[in-house]
């Protein structure tokens, strides 16, 4: 397996996440954050009210992003003059991706690769519109590459996934993911892989199956998939894959879509793939929103032992887990807010 090169920095633009907060600043000095109301105002030209008045900028409400249940991150690795950009997940639906990408004035033309963390609609739903918007941005000029966008996918795409909770009495399906054929028709170059591999000049590494070693991280409770007209157990979600990079002087930064494999399992696996390089940051969904209190406490205790300096918790993490992280590791929590840009 190729070794990751050290990046000078990594920039993460949050296009889709569950929460919005354009006021609060990052409490962690290891993370630079932009995307507050001042930054929103600077997306517009300065205005001059009258000959004697002072110029001003307006923070237009229609330039503020909207939250949605899902995740989508534009991640750019920087090393000297070299940059590579990957889109990690695409959110739950096309309208949300398009709306926020336009409001952010996101630089879509330079996205070279899309990675889907796992086959769930809240991560794949914006895929086809993302591909068409990347193509439109490239045609508009300024593209670094005219080659097709590689879409990195696990080969085991379920026909349909859902949750069969006893409290509901029936299966709740989560909506179909785009098919391989639809992704190719939208202009994507499908790359199917269930093995770990480095991409974009070894700036990033995409994992294979995440080993399950933590006893309390048992997958998606009541998770099922439709197979041959029958719902079967799918709690392990073996197609989930993480993304990671290595930042000079800091360590491994790992991105996880939902952590159905367990955020501790994902973090430990990233540490192993990194050859012992310290774990610096964990960003994405920790899937603790509906977890039992003891599960949350064990998770936070193990994350503390892993000694990650930045916990960019978002999407399906839940407020109780964030509260526990802040209590047990003051200053390390940086909530992931849609519309924000984080630099590590």
Tell me the name of the CATH homologous superfamily.
Answer: Ribonuclease Z/Hydroxyacylglutathione hydrolase-like
Count the beta strands. Answer: 19
| Rg for CA atoms | 20 Å
Largest sheet: 8 strands, mixed
Order of helix and strand elements from N to C terminus: EEEHEEHEHHEEEHEEEEEEEHEHEHE
- Proportion of β residues? 25-35%
Low-confidence stretches: none
Structural class designation: alpha/beta
What integer is the average pLDDT?
95
CATH topology: Metallo-beta-lactamase, Chain A
Counting structural domains, the number is 1
Strand arrangement, major sheet: 3-19-2-4-5-6-7-10
GO molecular function: transferase activity
Organism: Zymoseptoria tritici (strain CBS 115943 / IPO323)
InterPro entries: DHPS-like_MBL-fold (IPR041712), Metallo-B-lactamas (IPR001279), Metallo-beta-lactamase_dom (IPR052926), RibonucZ/Hydroxyglut_hydro (IPR036866)
Domain Metallo-beta-lactamase: 79-127
């Amino acid at each position: 397996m190729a070794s990751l090169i050290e990046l000078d920095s990594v920039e993460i633009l949050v296009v889709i996440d569950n929460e919005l907060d354009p006021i609060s600043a990052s409490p962690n000095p290891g993370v630079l954050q932009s995307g507050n109301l001042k930054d929103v105002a600077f997306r517009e030209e300065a205005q001059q009210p009258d000959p004697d008045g002072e110029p001003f900028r307006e923070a237009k409400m229609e330039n503020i992003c909207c939250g949605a249940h899902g995740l989508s991150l534009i991640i750019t690795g920087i090393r000297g003059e070299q940059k590579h950009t990957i889109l990690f997940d695409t959110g739950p639906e096309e309208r949300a991706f398009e709306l926020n990408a336009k409001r952010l004035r996101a630089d879509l033309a330079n996205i070279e690769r899309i990675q889907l963390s796992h086959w769930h609609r809240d991560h794949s739903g914006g895929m086809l519109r993302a591909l068409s918007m990347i193509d439109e941005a490239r045609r508009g000029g300024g593209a670094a590459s005219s080659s097709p966008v590689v879409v990195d996918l696990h080969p085991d795409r379920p026909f349909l996934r859902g949750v069969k909770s006893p409290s509901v009495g029936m299966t709740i399906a989560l909506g179909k993911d785009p098919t391989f054929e639809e992704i190719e028709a939208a202009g994507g170059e499908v790359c199917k892989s269930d093995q770990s591999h480095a991409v974009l000049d070894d700036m990033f590494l995409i994992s294979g199956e995440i080993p399950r070693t933590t006893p309390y991280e048992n997958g998606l409770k009541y998770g099922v998939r439709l197979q041959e007209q029958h719902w079967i157990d799918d709690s392990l979600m073996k197609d989930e894959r993480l993304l990671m990079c290595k930042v000079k002087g800091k360590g491994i930064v790992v991105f996880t879509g939902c952590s159905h494999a367990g955020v501790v399992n994902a973090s430990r696996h990233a540490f192993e793939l990194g050859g012992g390089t310290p774990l610096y940051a964990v960003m994405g969904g920790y899937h603790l929103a509906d977890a039992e209190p003891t599960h949350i406490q064990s998770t936070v205790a193990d994350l503390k032992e892993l000694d990650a300096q930045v916990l960019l918790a978002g999407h399906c993490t839940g407020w109780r887990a964030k509260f526990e992280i802040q209590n047990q590791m003051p200053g390390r929590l940086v909530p992931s807010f849609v519309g924000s840009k984080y630099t590590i």
